[in-house]
Design a protein that fits this description.
Elements (H helix, E strand, L loop, with lengths): L1 H10 L6 H13 L11 H6 L4 H5 L4 H13 L6 H12 L7 H11 L5 H4 L6 H10 L4 H12 L15 H10 L4 H18 L4 H17 L7 H4 L6 H10 L53 H15 L4 E3 L5 E3 L19 H5 L3 H14 L6 H17 L3 H15 L1 H5 L11 H4 L3 H11 L4 H11 L2 H11 L5 H16 L5 H16 L4 H8 L9 H5 L2 H8 L3 H12 L10 H8 L4 H13 L20 H8 L7 H8 L6 H12 L1
């Protein structure tokens, strides 16, 4: 209750009810009995558990059902489409910003998964909360969402339910590697909220947060606080502030993380629908909650599942090869100074460094883009004027970094959107009239220093890459010119070496598969175009890019990609089939199936993979065995020789030979 009072009073302090809220707040602080005879003040509210019915009342029944389904039935790694649908349905409007804190409070206080769900592949609460935090569109919403996440920490006592505070520590813990900004901002929030939330109870609130850390470590929710509080990746000043704020947490013995047993197989979540594990929805408001309600089954299960969950969160898939040791998919590290586009950035310093002409034009463009119904003609004209002013500037090299930051902030909606699937009834030609694509067109139409400006933008925001590939595929420029400029950008970012374009292309595909998987198939004709064949030949012989493409497919997009191959819209996804199929043995089941189907679409037959057949073990590679079983059609000497050379009692050879004998 205190959480919602704090939110309401802070957001309404300037409105017509502001004076009433301030008066009630003063009464709650100085004379609480005037509000209710049994009220002792703010601390009583902080220490009283919010009724779950009240938290649930903040959501519609339909929304509550969808969140319940997501957190009990959807496997981790297969949740992207569900989250995208939920966002479009409930969180896409401006008015929906206030729903994010309510959803986070509901997840923390109401949705308490059973041990069976915790040990399964179902998406955990921390992953959904982390996603909600990245969708906050304003600083106010972000602040309220963080308060919703950590509200139960402020007056936490050992007798309280650890499940209320578990998501907070796990969001920080799992975001350190790939989403460091989230971990840093949450730690900063915890440190700064102590003196600001309720100044007269600063000591009590600090003790509540310290108790939360100690309880979470005792319950083995995280193996160590060192990764969370003293990670070398976190800014040194922030780490020092955390140490000064919570010195007790650094006096707790920090045990090393438990080793992963060699016999354990860590596999990526599959697409099986979970059995009916009811979500624990406790409608009783007066029961006594004990620590046991939040106890995990055992530490071995936590460590194994936690590693798999963390791997999916950071974009590295844990796969299992023949000797059952975890294997990570090769990735390209993101640019060290690339800025996340999810949240608004303060670019006042960058604006102050612009020339007067560029400054006026940037302000006009920013105003025009924030209109309810912006005119694309006006936006295109303003973007064109900015490009012209930059080209003519005598100090363009000094202006480029500042202008790049300003343009990224202004074009943030374009960078975050899926230009193909979120345009609705908007014609594609109007999509290409957005400021981001107008800038791309100017770069391609003119051989000028604009390519340097785009390079600076690329350094600050990596989404530029796959949007540029979309621009080429959508016909914004000719394929030859577009690819030539993409190669220049890649060499500008990665360095002028033999693998610059390959590494950049891989990174862009990885980002696209994580954010807009449905767009991947659309840009494949450009990625695998003949203009890139000389550059991406190594990419084709290696399977990194192909694996990224295949991992983003679903049955519908697999059909589309196969169709593009069959009608020669894509010349070839790979030159040689055997290296691809051999590499696919270490991929997940769906990816292996898709690899064989794409091989069929290319026209490869059993004769092309005969040398690979002896490597297929029916027990260890059932997916490949199932697919190759259907490739043996007509018997011939070479086919019989390969099959009879397999081990005695081999099921694959026995099945094919028996079928041929009956025919």
């Amino acid at each position: 209750m205190c959480y919602y009072w704090k939110r309401f009073s802070s957001s309404s302090s300037t409105g017509c009810y502001g004076s009433g809220n301030r008066k009630s707040t003063l009464l709650l602080q100085r004379a609480p009995q005037t509000l209710h005879p049994q009220c002792t003040g703010i601390m009583q509210l902080l220490q009283t558990r919010t009724p779950r019915r009240f938290l649930a009342s903040r959501l519609t029944p339909d929304m509550e059902g969808k969140i319940g389904f997501l957190l009990t039935k959807v496997n981790f790694g297969k949740h992207k489409n569900y989250q995208d649908w939920f966002f479009r349905q409930y969180l896409s409007s401006r008015e929906s910003q206030t729903l994010r804190p309510d959803l986070i409070r509901y997840i923390c206080g109401v949705v308490h998964p059973t041990n069976d769900i915790l040990c399964s592949d179902v998406i955990p609460r921390w992953a959904v909360i982390g996603w909600l935090l990245t969708t906050c569109g304003s600083n106010v919403t972000a602040s309220h969402s963080k308060l919703a996440l950590f509200y139960d920490w402020l007056a936490f006592q050992p007798k309280d339910n650890v499940m209320n505070i578990e998501p907070g520590i796990l969001v920080i813990y799992h975001s350190v590697k790939a989403h460091l900004a989230i971990s840093a901002t949450l730690l900063d929030f915890l440190s700064r909220i102590i003196p600001t939330f309720c100044p007269e109870f600063t000591t009590t609130i600090r003790q509540g947060i310290v108790t939360s850390f100690q309880t979470l470590l005792d319950k083995k929710v995280v193996p160590s606080l060192e990764v969370v509080l003293d990670n070398p990746k976190i800014d040194a000043d922030l780490r020092e502030m955390v140490k000064l704020t919570f010195p007790e947490c650094f006096q707790i013995p920090l045990p090393p993380p438990p080793p992963l047993p060699e016999d354990d197989v860590v596999a990526e979540p599959d697409m099986d629908v979970m059995k009916d594990d009811p979500m624990e929805l406790d409608n009783s408001d007066n029961e006594t909650e004990t620590n046991d309600s939040g106890r995990f089954s055992d530490i071995e299960t936590i460590s194994t599942v936690g590693i798999a969950e963390e791997a999916v969160m950071i974009g590295v898939k844990i796969e299992v090869d023949s000797d059952k040791k975890p294997r990570a998919r090769p990735t390209v590290a993101p640019l060290s100074h690339s800025l996340p586009a999810n949240q608004p950035k303060d670019v006042s310093n960058a604006l102050s460094q612009l020339d007067p002409d560029l400054l006026d034009l940037m302000k006009s463009l920013d105003v025009a883009t924030k209109m309810d119904q912006p005119s694309y003609d006006d936006l295109a004209e303003l973007t064109d004027q900015i490009c012209s002013a930059f080209v003519l500037a005598s100090d363009w090299e000094d202006q480029a970094p500042s202008l790049a930051q300003c343009l990224i902030e202004t074009m943030r909606p374009d960078l975050l959107s899926d230009p193909l699937n979120e345009r609705g009834d908007e014609p594609l030609i109007e999509v290409l009239s957005r400021p981001l694509y107008v800038l791309f067109r100017k770069v391609c139409d003119e051989e000028s220093n604009l390519i340097n400006l785009l390079g600076e933008m690329y350094k600050f925001q990596e989404r530029i890459g796959f949007h540029f590939l979309f621009f080429i595929q959508a016909g914004g420029t000719s394929l030859d010119i577009g690819i030539a400029n993409y190669i220049k950008l890649a060499e500008m970012i990665q360095g002028d070496d033999d693998t610059a374009v390959e590494n950049r292309l891989l990174r862009d595909c990885q980002l696209l598969s994580e954010e807009h998987a449905n767009l991947m198939v659309y840009i494949c004709p450009t990625v695998y175009s003949t203009q890139l064949s000389g550059i991406s030949l190594k990419s084709r012989s290696s399977t990194s890019i192909l694996h990224t493409v295949i991992s983003s497919l679903n049955p519908t997009t697999l059909f589309r990609l196969s169709s593009l191959v069959i009608i020669d819209r894509i010349e070839s996804l790979f030159e040689h089939v055997v290296p691809v199929l051999r590499a696919s043995l270490h991929w997940e089941s769906w990816e292996q199936f898709a690899s064989w189907k794409l091989s069929e679409a290319h026209g490869f037959t059993i004769d092309d993979v005969l040398e690979f057949i002896p490597e297929i073990d029916v027990d260890r590679h059932p997916e490949a065995a199932n697919c190759v079983l259907l490739w043996f059609n007509t018997p011939c000497v070479d086919h019989v020789r390969v099959l009879t050379g397999r081990p005695v009692g081999d099921a694959l050879a026995g099945t094919v030979l028996q079928r041929w004998s009956r025919e």
